[in-house]
Records
---
Amino acid sequence: MKQYKSSTMSALTAGLLAAAALFAGSAHALDTAKAKQLAQANACMGCHAVDKKLVGPAYKDMAAKYKGMDAAKLAVSIKAGGAGKWGPIPMPAQGRLSDAEAKVLAEWVLAGAPN
Ligand code: HEC
């Protein structure tokens, strides 16, 4: 009986872990690690910070302004760059980014650039 109980418990634990892993790996979960890596690798962090304005607006301010926006739409803006929405300084186009990379970044920005 004792044996039976403990194996039930470990089966349950394994099930929960598997569920957590599935959730973390799901295509629609926010991929924070990937987004941060892309932001470092593509110099986003040279012009943007999470909660203060640098050359470009803070990620938190963008998240507030664009709350509820479709990430695909913001991804297009990231790739295209632009000017005049936040101030006179333009953001250069980010042509090296794939659509998928731009989308990961857009989702992360819209979530307020969590760590
Ligand atoms: C050379 C500096 C610079 C770099 C590099 C840069 N940005 Fe920007 N970014 C800006 C500026 C300046 C603006 C504001 C443009 C405006 O006023 O329309 C901006 C605007 C944005 C916006 C808001 C766009 C909108 O439609 O309002 C997002 C999102 C953004 N940047 C994300 C990124 C990401 C992600 C990267 C890296 C792939 C990046 N930026 C790289 C300077 C930069």
Note: Residues 39, 42-44, 46-48, 55-57, 62, 74, 77-78, 82-87, 89, 91-92, 94, 97, 105, 109 surround heme C (CB under 6 Å).
---
Amino acid sequence: MNIKSLFISNKIKHLALVVLAFFSFTYNLHAQDGDVATGEALFNGNCASCHFPDKDMTGPALKGAKDRWIENSSEENFYKWVINSGSVIAEGDAYANKLFKDWNNTPMPAQNVDESGINDIFAYIEAYEPPLPVDQVVDNGGGAVEAETSSLYWWLLAGLLIIVIAVVAGVKGNLAALARDKEGEEQPEQLTVGESARSWAWRNRGWFGVTVFAAMILMLSLGMVKWLDLGVYEDYKPEQPIAYSHEIHAGDLGIDCKYCHNAVTKSKHATIPSVNVCMNCHKTVNEGRDADGTAEIAKIYEAAGWDIDTKSYTGETKPIQWVKVHNLPDHVYFNHSQHVVAGGVDCKQCHGNMKKEDVARVMTTEDLNNVGVTDEDWAENDVKFTKPTLTMGWCIECHRQSSVDLAGAPDGSYYNEIHERLLKDKKTYKEYLEDDVVTVGELGGLECAKCHY
Ligand code: HEC
Ligand code: HEC
Ligand code: HEC
Ligand code: HEC
Ligand code: HEC
Ligand code: HEC
């Protein structure tokens, strides 16, 4: 073999190494030594009061902690730290002392675990993935993040596939060259990598074309799904961890929406009630309408750590992972209190008649338009929709139609201020009040920056 083909085959080796490295890397991610199930139990029993796997709490997020120790101190000290963090600090280890300082000199108490227990715990931590719509909904009223990882994974896979094809083809070429060498045949003219790739593609144009075509179709369809996702919300009704019923609670029992969604008048988010809110009643109400209902209420007890026999909390809580139903993309700003308080918009206008629903769903345009007709305590809603719920067109449509009562706004209110300002500028005022209504749109509710970060 001549130098050049050696060089090329070296390149191929490098490529193969990269591919191998990638696979062993992903393999490592999943195959930590240690047992995930044991680790989960140990983590919940010993560490969960101060640590989340993936978020800071009293102590830092633990994902990647072992690597941080190996990088900044040593693996030995990592185990020592967990068992007795004070000893590593006392020894003057720089990383340990920095951690201690960064976390406000709060010592992490010594832990009753051994090395294999720690391996189990970190096997669990590294394998941990936040449940899709985390109970963040409970903590901060939303912002649950959809994992984008799966599409990334497909892209990586597609990339890998291309590399593998290239490597295989390269190896094939090299073998052929080797065979020719052996038989003393003359080697064909040496080509650069680009040229040989091109000529290879041409020689194999049949299945090369098919592969490229298939890859393009795959990518396009993935892209399409993502794109279509943008608008497909209507009637979305995910299965929830507890078969909670709005009809029973908000309808029959007449509980006010704001009793449970209590941030709705004060903040951007309406928030999903925490399990404590349910326990206000369910400490005593332990039976539903039928056996199913009773079993569902038992799930509340499991989440709250309530022992129905001793009537006391066991301290072992397990958050209810409600699945987020309404989900605007991150680039959109939507504020509940602005609509409910300042705008005086009824929940029904956007969420339909929840008193007739079990768990929530995204209402269809038809549901929203019929709310006024089918519900006795809802006179006539003034906005008729044509665009699918939660799309941009839907917001805009309502902003075009909804009017704001400027002249009647109470003294000192936001609209009163606008009214005063408009009055000073008679010309604009007249322009706006020509039809005697000021719509949200006319007030600026159609400006991109109002809704987009
Ligand atoms: C009472 C609270 C508490 C408990 C319980 C606790 N930790 Fe910690 N942990 C901390 C604090 C606080 C820190 C930050 C360092 C400091 O202030 O000393 C920390 C730091 C750590 C670090 C270093 C993180 C890094 O980024 O390098 C590891 C590893 C760790 N803890 C593991 C555990 C494990 C495993 C358990 C359970 C067996 C556990 N901790 C239980 C409070 C706690
Ligand atoms: C102008 C339309 C509109 C009105 C009025 C409205 N909502 Fe919403 N609601 C939305 C939108 C849009 C979302 C999705 C927000 C997001 O994904 O950031 C949402 C989300 C929610 C959520 C999920 C948690 C959250 O905050 O994201 C709850 C619960 C909720 N609304 C309850 C209510 C209640 C209760 C009322 C009445 C007091 C109400 N909404 C009034 C449009 C509205
Ligand atoms: C203000 C009191 C109150 C609150 C707060 C409350 N519930 Fe209830 N819930 C009740 C009552 C009363 C019943 C029994 C209704 C019946 O049997 O007709 C019930 C029944 C249920 C049932 C059984 C339904 C069935 O089909 O039989 C479930 C499940 C339930 N609640 C879940 C929840 C959840 C989850 C929360 C918190 C988000 C919650 N409840 C908050 C009063 C409440
Ligand atoms: C049912 C009718 C309705 C729907 C649907 C609606 N809005 Fe509104 N919106 C209003 C009203 C009424 C106001 C005026 C309230 C205020 O600002 O005081 C308003 C005001 C706003 C404002 C403030 C505008 C300004 O000039 O300051 C923003 C931002 C906004 N809405 C965003 C949205 C987004 C984003 C959506 C869609 C996800 C949406 N709205 C859907 C009725 C609606
Ligand atoms: C007893 C507590 C309670 C009351 C009262 C209540 N809800 Fe809910 N609501 C919940 C719970 C729990 C969920 C989460 C499960 C689900 O999605 O149905 C929820 C979910 C929702 C959602 C969907 C949130 C999301 O993920 O996008 C909307 C919208 C909503 N409620 C509106 C209302 C309206 C409007 C009322 C008043 C008519 C109301 N709720 C009354 C407990 C309550
Ligand atoms: C009243 C609120 C509102 C206003 C004003 C608004 N947008 Fe949007 N926009 C949205 C919402 C909500 C979405 C998300 C729609 C979805 O997920 O389907 C969106 C989505 C988008 C998207 C993503 C593509 C799509 O169709 O989902 C683009 C691009 C965009 N807006 C541009 C603009 C531009 C440019 C303006 C100004 C001319 C503007 N928006 C004004 C609410 C608004």
Note: Residues 39 and 121 are 4 Å apart (CA to CA).
